[in-house]
User: Fold this.
Amino acid sequence: LPATAAELKRTPLFKAHAEAGARLVPFAGWEMPVQYEGVRQEHVAVRTAAGVFDVSHMGEIETRGPRALEFLRHLLSNDLGKVGVGGAQYALLCRDDGGVLDDLFTYWLEEERFLTVVNAANAETDFNWFAKQADGWDGVEVVNRSADYAMLALQGPEAVACFEGIAEDGETPDRFHHGEATIAGARALVCRTGYTGEDGVELLIAPGDAEAVWRALMGAGVVPCGLGARDTLRLEVCYPLYGNDLSTDRTPIEAGLKWACALDNDFVGADRLREQVEEGPEEKLAPFVFTDQGIPRAGCAVMSGDERVGLVTSGTLSPCMEVGIGMAYVRSDLGSPGTELTVDVRGKRRAARVESKPLYKKES
Amino acid sequence: LAAESYPDELLYHPEHDWARIEGDTATFGITWYAQDALGEVVFFDPPDVGATITAGQSYAEVESVKAVSDVIAPLSGEVTAVNEAVSETPELINEDPYTSGWLVKVKLTAPDEKGSLLDAGAYKAQLELGE
Assistant:
Protein backbone atom coordinates (compact mmCIF):
# COMPACT_ATOMS: atom_id res chain seq x y z
CA LEU A 1 0.00 0.00 0.00
CA PRO A 2 1.26 3.51 -0.69
CA ALA A 3 2.43 5.29 2.42
CA THR A 4 0.21 8.18 3.45
CA ALA A 5 1.66 11.57 4.31
CA ALA A 6 1.36 10.76 8.01
CA GLU A 7 3.63 7.73 7.65
CA LEU A 8 6.34 9.45 5.63
CA LYS A 9 9.65 10.11 7.35
CA ARG A 10 11.21 13.56 7.27
CA THR A 11 14.87 14.49 7.25
CA PRO A 12 16.18 17.07 9.76
CA LEU A 13 16.09 19.58 6.89
CA PHE A 14 12.37 19.31 6.21
CA LYS A 15 11.68 22.83 7.51
CA ALA A 16 14.63 24.31 5.63
CA HIS A 17 13.36 22.74 2.40
CA ALA A 18 9.89 24.16 2.86
CA GLU A 19 11.41 27.60 3.51
CA ALA A 20 13.51 27.31 0.36
CA GLY A 21 10.34 26.70 -1.68
CA ALA A 22 10.84 22.98 -2.26
CA ARG A 23 8.17 20.83 -3.82
CA LEU A 24 8.08 17.79 -1.54
CA VAL A 25 7.09 14.34 -2.76
CA PRO A 26 6.99 10.84 -1.27
CA PHE A 27 10.14 8.91 -2.12
CA ALA A 28 11.12 5.52 -0.66
CA GLY A 29 9.02 6.21 2.43
CA TRP A 30 10.38 9.73 2.90
CA GLU A 31 8.98 13.15 2.17
CA MET A 32 11.76 14.57 -0.01
CA PRO A 33 12.35 17.69 -2.12
CA VAL A 34 11.97 16.85 -5.82
CA GLN A 35 12.80 20.42 -6.90
CA TYR A 36 13.12 23.99 -5.69
CA GLU A 37 13.37 26.52 -8.55
CA GLY A 38 13.23 23.90 -11.29
CA VAL A 39 14.96 20.69 -12.33
CA ARG A 40 16.77 22.27 -15.25
CA GLN A 41 18.26 25.22 -13.32
CA GLU A 42 19.38 22.89 -10.54
CA HIS A 43 20.90 20.47 -13.03
CA VAL A 44 22.83 23.28 -14.73
CA ALA A 45 24.00 24.67 -11.36
CA VAL A 46 25.65 21.32 -10.58
CA ARG A 47 27.25 21.07 -14.04
CA THR A 48 28.61 24.63 -13.97
CA ALA A 49 28.94 25.75 -10.31
CA ALA A 50 27.83 23.97 -7.12
CA GLY A 51 24.61 22.43 -5.83
CA VAL A 52 23.67 20.56 -2.68
CA PHE A 53 21.28 17.65 -2.24
CA ASP A 54 19.80 16.49 1.04
CA VAL A 55 20.33 12.73 0.88
CA SER A 56 19.69 12.11 4.57
CA HIS A 57 17.15 9.46 3.59
CA MET A 58 19.98 7.12 2.61
CA GLY A 59 20.86 4.32 5.01
CA GLU A 60 24.15 3.71 6.81
CA ILE A 61 25.42 0.37 8.03
CA GLU A 62 28.52 0.11 10.16
CA THR A 63 30.57 -3.09 10.10
CA ARG A 64 33.29 -3.46 12.71
CA GLY A 65 35.52 -5.98 14.37
CA PRO A 66 38.73 -7.92 13.69
CA ARG A 67 37.13 -9.80 10.78
CA ALA A 68 35.11 -6.89 9.36
CA LEU A 69 37.25 -6.59 6.21
CA GLU A 70 37.12 -10.32 5.54
CA PHE A 71 33.34 -10.26 6.02
CA LEU A 72 32.80 -7.33 3.63
CA ARG A 73 35.02 -8.97 1.01
CA HIS A 74 32.70 -11.97 1.30
CA LEU A 75 29.50 -9.90 1.17
CA LEU A 76 30.26 -7.22 -1.44
CA SER A 77 31.14 -7.65 -5.12
CA ASN A 78 34.18 -5.37 -5.08
CA ASP A 79 37.45 -5.92 -3.22
CA LEU A 80 37.78 -3.49 -0.33
CA GLY A 81 41.29 -4.87 0.20
CA LYS A 82 42.33 -2.73 -2.77
CA VAL A 83 41.55 0.61 -1.13
CA GLY A 84 42.92 0.69 2.43
CA VAL A 85 41.98 2.81 5.44
CA GLY A 86 40.67 6.20 4.29
CA GLY A 87 39.42 4.78 0.99
CA ALA A 88 35.92 4.56 -0.50
CA GLN A 89 34.63 1.97 -2.92
CA TYR A 90 31.50 1.29 -4.99
CA ALA A 91 30.13 -2.26 -4.95
CA LEU A 92 27.04 -4.36 -5.51
CA LEU A 93 25.34 -6.40 -2.83
CA CYS A 94 24.30 -9.63 -4.54
CA ARG A 95 22.31 -12.73 -3.71
CA ASP A 96 23.68 -16.20 -4.41
CA ASP A 97 21.99 -16.14 -7.84
CA GLY A 98 23.78 -12.91 -8.72
CA GLY A 99 20.63 -10.78 -8.43
CA VAL A 100 21.39 -7.30 -7.15
CA LEU A 101 20.03 -6.42 -3.70
CA ASP A 102 21.56 -2.95 -3.78
CA ASP A 103 24.40 -0.80 -5.02
CA LEU A 104 26.36 1.03 -2.36
CA PHE A 105 29.49 2.85 -1.27
CA THR A 106 31.69 1.66 1.59
CA TYR A 107 34.03 3.99 3.47
CA TRP A 108 36.94 2.38 5.33
CA LEU A 109 36.93 4.50 8.49
CA GLU A 110 39.46 2.78 10.75
CA GLU A 111 41.43 -0.47 10.62
CA GLU A 112 38.46 -2.47 11.94
CA ARG A 113 35.58 -0.11 11.16
CA PHE A 114 33.63 0.44 7.90
CA LEU A 115 30.58 2.54 6.98
CA THR A 116 28.40 1.47 4.06
CA VAL A 117 25.92 3.97 2.58
CA VAL A 118 22.91 2.29 0.95
CA ASN A 119 19.76 3.32 -0.91
CA ALA A 120 16.89 4.53 1.27
CA ALA A 121 14.41 2.07 -0.18
CA ASN A 122 16.69 -0.85 0.70
CA ALA A 123 18.07 0.34 4.03
CA GLU A 124 16.09 -2.12 6.16
CA THR A 125 16.46 -5.13 3.88
CA ASP A 126 20.17 -4.44 3.39
CA PHE A 127 20.75 -4.24 7.12
CA ASN A 128 18.82 -7.46 7.67
CA TRP A 129 20.88 -9.12 4.94
CA PHE A 130 24.15 -7.89 6.50
CA ALA A 131 22.99 -9.11 9.92
CA LYS A 132 21.87 -12.51 8.63
CA GLN A 133 25.08 -13.04 6.69
CA ALA A 134 27.14 -12.01 9.74
CA ASP A 135 25.47 -14.71 11.79
CA GLY A 136 28.16 -17.22 12.70
CA TRP A 137 31.02 -14.82 11.99
CA ASP A 138 32.93 -14.29 15.23
CA GLY A 139 34.65 -10.93 15.28
CA VAL A 140 32.10 -9.12 13.12
CA GLU A 141 29.52 -6.70 14.42
CA VAL A 142 26.93 -5.06 12.16
CA VAL A 143 25.09 -1.93 13.35
CA ASN A 144 22.28 0.01 11.65
CA ARG A 145 23.46 3.63 11.89
CA SER A 146 20.80 5.13 9.58
CA ALA A 147 19.28 7.25 12.36
CA ASP A 148 22.69 8.61 13.39
CA TYR A 149 23.54 10.42 10.17
CA ALA A 150 22.23 13.18 7.99
CA MET A 151 23.93 13.40 4.60
CA LEU A 152 24.47 16.31 2.21
CA ALA A 153 25.92 15.85 -1.26
CA LEU A 154 27.77 19.00 -2.36
CA GLN A 155 28.46 18.59 -6.08
CA GLY A 156 29.76 20.58 -9.02
CA PRO A 157 33.00 22.03 -10.42
CA GLU A 158 33.01 24.67 -7.64
CA ALA A 159 31.94 22.27 -4.88
CA VAL A 160 35.39 21.54 -3.47
CA ALA A 161 36.40 25.21 -3.40
CA CYS A 162 33.11 25.96 -1.70
CA PHE A 163 33.71 23.22 0.88
CA GLU A 164 37.21 24.56 1.52
CA GLY A 165 35.78 28.05 1.90
CA ILE A 166 33.43 27.08 4.73
CA ALA A 167 35.45 24.31 6.42
CA GLU A 168 36.93 25.56 9.68
CA ASP A 169 39.57 22.84 9.72
CA GLY A 170 40.42 19.56 8.05
CA GLU A 171 41.85 18.68 4.66
CA THR A 172 40.14 17.92 1.40
CA PRO A 173 40.28 14.18 0.75
CA ASP A 174 41.42 12.82 -2.61
CA ARG A 175 38.89 11.33 -5.04
CA PHE A 176 37.36 8.13 -3.56
CA HIS A 177 38.78 8.91 -0.15
CA HIS A 178 37.36 10.46 2.97
CA GLY A 179 38.48 12.67 5.81
CA GLU A 180 37.04 14.82 8.56
CA ALA A 181 36.32 18.52 8.83
CA THR A 182 34.40 21.05 10.91
CA ILE A 183 31.68 23.09 9.21
CA ALA A 184 29.48 25.55 11.11
CA GLY A 185 30.87 24.05 14.31
CA ALA A 186 29.78 20.53 13.30
CA ARG A 187 32.09 17.57 12.79
CA ALA A 188 31.60 16.03 9.36
CA LEU A 189 32.83 12.88 7.70
CA VAL A 190 33.85 14.24 4.29
CA CYS A 191 33.73 11.81 1.36
CA ARG A 192 35.06 12.72 -2.08
CA THR A 193 32.29 10.81 -3.84
CA GLY A 194 28.99 11.57 -5.55
CA TYR A 195 26.27 10.58 -7.96
CA THR A 196 26.34 13.39 -10.52
CA GLY A 197 29.46 12.91 -12.65
CA GLU A 198 30.92 16.09 -11.14
CA ASP A 199 33.60 16.57 -8.53
CA GLY A 200 32.35 17.17 -5.01
CA VAL A 201 32.06 15.94 -1.47
CA GLU A 202 29.40 14.12 0.49
CA LEU A 203 29.10 15.21 4.10
CA LEU A 204 27.93 12.78 6.79
CA ILE A 205 26.93 14.68 9.91
CA ALA A 206 24.85 14.27 13.07
CA PRO A 207 21.15 14.96 12.32
CA GLY A 208 21.16 17.77 14.88
CA ASP A 209 23.91 19.56 12.93
CA ALA A 210 22.28 19.26 9.52
CA GLU A 211 20.48 22.58 9.54
CA ALA A 212 23.58 24.60 10.54
CA VAL A 213 25.65 22.97 7.78
CA TRP A 214 22.84 23.48 5.25
CA ARG A 215 22.62 27.18 6.15
CA ALA A 216 26.39 27.56 5.84
CA LEU A 217 26.15 26.10 2.32
CA MET A 218 23.24 28.37 1.41
CA GLY A 219 25.25 31.32 2.73
CA ALA A 220 28.10 30.34 0.41
CA GLY A 221 25.76 30.58 -2.58
CA VAL A 222 25.31 26.85 -3.17
CA VAL A 223 22.10 26.05 -5.07
CA PRO A 224 19.66 23.70 -3.30
CA CYS A 225 18.88 20.77 -5.59
CA GLY A 226 16.15 18.14 -5.46
CA LEU A 227 15.80 14.52 -6.44
CA GLY A 228 14.65 15.54 -9.92
CA ALA A 229 18.04 17.02 -10.82
CA ARG A 230 19.81 14.19 -9.01
CA ASP A 231 18.09 11.78 -11.41
CA THR A 232 18.84 13.72 -14.61
CA LEU A 233 22.47 14.26 -13.55
CA ARG A 234 23.12 10.60 -12.80
CA LEU A 235 21.39 9.47 -15.98
CA GLU A 236 23.51 11.75 -18.20
CA VAL A 237 26.59 9.95 -16.87
CA CYS A 238 24.88 6.51 -16.84
CA TYR A 239 25.03 5.77 -13.12
CA PRO A 240 22.42 3.09 -12.45
CA LEU A 241 19.46 3.77 -10.18
CA TYR A 242 18.38 0.88 -7.98
CA GLY A 243 14.74 0.00 -8.59
CA ASN A 244 14.99 1.21 -12.20
CA ASP A 245 18.21 -0.11 -13.71
CA LEU A 246 19.12 -2.57 -10.97
CA SER A 247 16.97 -5.18 -9.24
CA THR A 248 17.13 -8.74 -7.94
CA ASP A 249 16.16 -9.82 -11.49
CA ARG A 250 19.36 -8.34 -12.90
CA THR A 251 23.02 -9.10 -12.30
CA PRO A 252 25.97 -6.68 -12.27
CA ILE A 253 27.20 -8.33 -15.47
CA GLU A 254 23.98 -7.50 -17.32
CA ALA A 255 24.07 -3.99 -15.82
CA GLY A 256 27.56 -3.31 -17.19
CA LEU A 257 29.08 -3.26 -13.70
CA LYS A 258 31.64 -6.04 -14.11
CA TRP A 259 34.30 -3.42 -13.26
CA ALA A 260 32.85 -3.35 -9.72
CA CYS A 261 33.06 -7.15 -9.35
CA ALA A 262 36.27 -8.79 -8.09
CA LEU A 263 35.53 -12.04 -9.90
CA ASP A 264 38.71 -13.70 -8.62
CA ASN A 265 37.26 -13.54 -5.10
CA ASP A 266 34.54 -15.70 -3.60
CA PHE A 267 31.91 -13.15 -2.65
CA VAL A 268 28.21 -14.02 -2.46
CA GLY A 269 26.97 -14.48 -6.03
CA ALA A 270 30.45 -14.72 -7.60
CA ASP A 271 29.94 -18.26 -8.93
CA ARG A 272 26.88 -17.23 -10.92
CA LEU A 273 28.54 -14.05 -12.19
CA ARG A 274 31.63 -15.95 -13.41
CA GLU A 275 29.29 -18.38 -15.18
CA GLN A 276 27.43 -15.49 -16.80
CA VAL A 277 30.65 -13.86 -17.99
CA GLU A 278 31.61 -17.21 -19.55
CA GLU A 279 28.21 -17.67 -21.27
CA GLY A 280 27.71 -14.03 -22.14
CA PRO A 281 24.52 -12.40 -20.77
CA GLU A 282 21.38 -12.57 -22.88
CA GLU A 283 20.65 -8.90 -22.28
CA LYS A 284 22.66 -5.91 -21.24
CA LEU A 285 22.02 -2.39 -20.08
CA ALA A 286 22.61 -0.04 -22.99
CA PRO A 287 22.71 3.76 -22.78
CA PHE A 288 21.00 5.45 -25.72
CA VAL A 289 20.13 8.88 -27.12
CA PHE A 290 17.13 9.83 -29.20
CA THR A 291 17.98 10.97 -32.69
CA ASP A 292 14.32 11.96 -32.88
CA GLN A 293 12.10 14.21 -30.79
CA GLY A 294 10.35 12.87 -27.71
CA ILE A 295 11.37 11.69 -24.27
CA PRO A 296 11.89 8.02 -23.36
CA ARG A 297 10.41 6.85 -20.08
CA ALA A 298 10.90 3.75 -17.92
CA GLY A 299 8.63 0.98 -19.22
CA CYS A 300 8.81 1.94 -22.90
CA ALA A 301 9.50 -1.01 -25.24
CA VAL A 302 12.67 -1.02 -27.32
CA MET A 303 12.17 -2.25 -30.90
CA SER A 304 14.40 -3.40 -33.71
CA GLY A 305 12.21 -3.28 -36.78
CA ASP A 306 8.95 -4.82 -35.56
CA GLU A 307 10.60 -7.04 -33.02
CA ARG A 308 10.51 -6.13 -29.36
CA VAL A 309 14.11 -6.40 -28.15
CA GLY A 310 14.21 -4.65 -24.80
CA LEU A 311 12.79 -2.36 -22.16
CA VAL A 312 13.70 1.17 -21.09
CA THR A 313 14.52 1.28 -17.37
CA SER A 314 15.41 5.01 -17.10
CA GLY A 315 14.63 7.91 -19.40
CA THR A 316 14.47 11.68 -19.36
CA LEU A 317 15.20 14.78 -21.37
CA SER A 318 18.90 15.56 -20.92
CA PRO A 319 19.12 19.16 -19.73
CA CYS A 320 22.70 19.48 -21.05
CA MET A 321 22.31 17.67 -24.39
CA GLU A 322 18.68 18.73 -24.94
CA VAL A 323 17.64 15.36 -26.36
CA GLY A 324 15.86 12.35 -24.93
CA ILE A 325 18.29 9.95 -23.24
CA GLY A 326 17.91 6.71 -21.37
CA MET A 327 19.12 3.27 -20.48
CA ALA A 328 17.46 0.05 -21.59
CA TYR A 329 18.03 -3.65 -21.18
CA VAL A 330 18.35 -4.93 -24.73
CA ARG A 331 19.36 -8.18 -26.42
CA SER A 332 23.15 -8.29 -26.06
CA ASP A 333 23.83 -8.32 -29.80
CA LEU A 334 21.97 -4.99 -30.05
CA GLY A 335 23.71 -3.32 -27.12
CA SER A 336 26.83 -2.03 -28.86
CA PRO A 337 27.42 1.69 -29.45
CA GLY A 338 26.16 2.81 -32.85
CA THR A 339 23.26 0.33 -33.01
CA GLU A 340 20.11 2.01 -34.33
CA LEU A 341 16.88 1.07 -32.53
CA THR A 342 13.47 2.59 -31.94
CA VAL A 343 11.62 3.20 -28.68
CA ASP A 344 7.85 2.95 -28.48
CA VAL A 345 6.78 6.06 -26.55
CA ARG A 346 3.05 5.67 -25.92
CA GLY A 347 2.44 4.41 -29.44
CA LYS A 348 4.94 6.61 -31.28
CA ARG A 349 8.17 5.09 -32.59
CA ARG A 350 11.13 7.29 -31.77
CA ALA A 351 14.54 6.69 -33.35
CA ALA A 352 17.36 5.98 -30.91
CA ARG A 353 21.05 5.10 -31.10
CA VAL A 354 23.02 3.10 -28.56
CA GLU A 355 25.96 5.11 -27.22
CA SER A 356 28.95 4.48 -25.00
CA LYS A 357 29.08 5.58 -21.36
CA PRO A 358 28.86 8.34 -20.24
CA LEU A 359 26.21 9.92 -22.46
CA TYR A 360 27.21 13.40 -21.28
CA LYS A 361 30.90 13.96 -21.88
CA LYS A 362 32.32 16.95 -20.12
CA GLU A 363 34.21 19.37 -22.34
CA SER A 364 37.75 19.68 -21.03
CA LEU B 1 7.48 32.47 -14.48
CA ALA B 2 3.87 33.60 -14.69
CA ALA B 3 1.92 34.58 -11.58
CA GLU B 4 -1.21 32.56 -10.80
CA SER B 5 -4.21 33.81 -12.73
CA TYR B 6 -7.42 32.60 -14.40
CA PRO B 7 -8.64 35.19 -16.92
CA ASP B 8 -12.35 35.95 -16.82
CA GLU B 9 -12.76 35.88 -20.61
CA LEU B 10 -11.85 32.16 -20.83
CA LEU B 11 -13.87 29.02 -20.19
CA TYR B 12 -12.34 26.11 -18.30
CA HIS B 13 -12.45 22.34 -18.39
CA PRO B 14 -12.14 20.67 -14.97
CA GLU B 15 -9.01 18.80 -16.17
CA HIS B 16 -7.16 22.17 -16.14
CA ASP B 17 -7.58 23.26 -19.74
CA TRP B 18 -8.89 26.55 -21.08
CA ALA B 19 -10.74 27.64 -24.23
CA ARG B 20 -10.97 31.12 -25.77
CA ILE B 21 -14.05 30.99 -27.97
CA GLU B 22 -14.47 33.36 -30.92
CA GLY B 23 -17.60 32.48 -32.92
CA ASP B 24 -17.22 28.93 -34.22
CA THR B 25 -13.47 28.78 -33.59
CA ALA B 26 -11.52 28.49 -30.36
CA THR B 27 -7.99 28.50 -28.99
CA PHE B 28 -7.00 25.91 -26.34
CA GLY B 29 -4.28 25.73 -23.73
CA ILE B 30 -3.54 24.52 -20.22
CA THR B 31 -4.18 26.55 -17.08
CA TRP B 32 -1.70 28.16 -14.72
CA TYR B 33 -2.50 25.40 -12.21
CA ALA B 34 -1.70 22.66 -14.75
CA GLN B 35 1.67 24.10 -15.76
CA ASP B 36 2.60 24.71 -12.11
CA ALA B 37 1.77 21.12 -11.15
CA LEU B 38 3.81 19.82 -14.09
CA GLY B 39 6.86 22.01 -13.56
CA GLU B 40 9.04 23.26 -16.38
CA VAL B 41 7.61 21.98 -19.67
CA VAL B 42 10.32 20.55 -21.92
CA PHE B 43 8.31 18.88 -24.67
CA PHE B 44 4.98 19.50 -26.42
CA ASP B 45 3.77 16.78 -28.73
CA PRO B 46 1.05 18.46 -30.83
CA PRO B 47 -1.71 16.85 -32.87
CA ASP B 48 -1.60 17.15 -36.66
CA VAL B 49 -3.38 20.05 -38.31
CA GLY B 50 -6.65 18.58 -39.57
CA ALA B 51 -6.95 16.10 -36.70
CA THR B 52 -10.37 15.66 -35.14
CA ILE B 53 -10.43 16.12 -31.40
CA THR B 54 -13.19 15.26 -28.95
CA ALA B 55 -14.26 17.12 -25.83
CA GLY B 56 -13.04 15.38 -22.69
CA GLN B 57 -10.38 13.36 -24.52
CA SER B 58 -6.63 13.78 -24.80
CA TYR B 59 -5.42 15.55 -27.95
CA ALA B 60 -1.76 16.20 -27.08
CA GLU B 61 0.91 15.57 -24.48
CA VAL B 62 3.06 17.96 -22.53
CA GLU B 63 6.09 16.70 -20.64
CA SER B 64 8.30 18.05 -17.90
CA VAL B 65 11.66 16.47 -17.14
CA LYS B 66 9.93 14.18 -14.66
CA ALA B 67 6.41 13.59 -15.96
CA VAL B 68 4.06 13.27 -18.92
CA SER B 69 0.62 14.84 -18.89
CA ASP B 70 -2.25 14.37 -21.32
CA VAL B 71 -3.89 17.55 -22.56
CA ILE B 72 -7.68 17.28 -22.57
CA ALA B 73 -9.83 18.96 -25.21
CA PRO B 74 -12.40 21.28 -23.60
CA LEU B 75 -14.53 21.18 -26.78
CA SER B 76 -14.80 19.06 -29.94
CA GLY B 77 -13.51 20.20 -33.29
CA GLU B 78 -10.93 20.05 -36.04
CA VAL B 79 -7.41 21.37 -35.46
CA THR B 80 -6.71 24.30 -37.80
CA ALA B 81 -3.36 25.41 -36.32
CA VAL B 82 -0.80 24.28 -33.75
CA ASN B 83 1.51 26.66 -31.92
CA GLU B 84 4.89 26.02 -33.52
CA ALA B 85 6.51 28.47 -31.10
CA VAL B 86 5.56 26.18 -28.22
CA SER B 87 6.95 23.14 -30.06
CA GLU B 88 10.22 25.04 -30.39
CA THR B 89 10.17 26.61 -26.92
CA PRO B 90 7.91 24.54 -24.66
CA GLU B 91 8.63 26.70 -21.59
CA LEU B 92 6.36 29.37 -23.15
CA ILE B 93 3.62 27.29 -21.51
CA ASN B 94 5.13 28.14 -18.10
CA GLU B 95 5.95 31.73 -18.92
CA ASP B 96 2.62 32.68 -20.42
CA PRO B 97 0.02 29.89 -20.34
CA TYR B 98 -2.88 32.00 -21.68
CA THR B 99 -1.42 34.01 -24.56
CA SER B 100 1.89 33.03 -26.19
CA GLY B 101 1.60 29.55 -24.57
CA TRP B 102 -1.58 28.59 -26.46
CA LEU B 103 -1.48 25.07 -27.92
CA VAL B 104 -3.99 24.67 -30.77
CA LYS B 105 -6.67 26.54 -32.70
CA VAL B 106 -9.80 24.58 -33.48
CA LYS B 107 -12.86 24.87 -35.73
CA LEU B 108 -15.62 23.82 -33.36
CA THR B 109 -17.96 21.03 -34.47
CA ALA B 110 -20.25 21.23 -31.43
CA PRO B 111 -20.17 24.81 -30.08
CA ASP B 112 -23.03 24.01 -27.69
CA GLU B 113 -20.62 21.94 -25.62
CA LYS B 114 -19.41 25.19 -24.08
CA GLY B 115 -22.40 24.96 -21.74
CA SER B 116 -20.61 22.21 -19.83
CA LEU B 117 -17.45 24.28 -19.24
CA LEU B 118 -16.70 26.32 -16.12
CA ASP B 119 -16.27 30.06 -15.91
CA ALA B 120 -13.22 31.44 -14.11
CA GLY B 121 -15.04 31.69 -10.78
CA ALA B 122 -16.31 28.11 -10.88
CA TYR B 123 -12.89 26.79 -11.94
CA LYS B 124 -11.16 28.66 -9.11
CA ALA B 125 -13.75 27.27 -6.68
CA GLN B 126 -12.91 23.76 -7.92
CA LEU B 127 -9.19 24.39 -7.32
CA GLU B 128 -9.88 25.60 -3.80
CA LEU B 129 -11.95 22.50 -3.05
CA GLY B 130 -9.13 20.34 -4.36
CA GLU B 131 -6.60 22.02 -2.10
Q: What stands out?
A: Residues 120-130 of chain B form the longest helix (11 residues). Chain B has four helices and nine strands. The mean pLDDT of chain B is 95. Chain B touches chain A through eleven residues (CB under 8 Å).
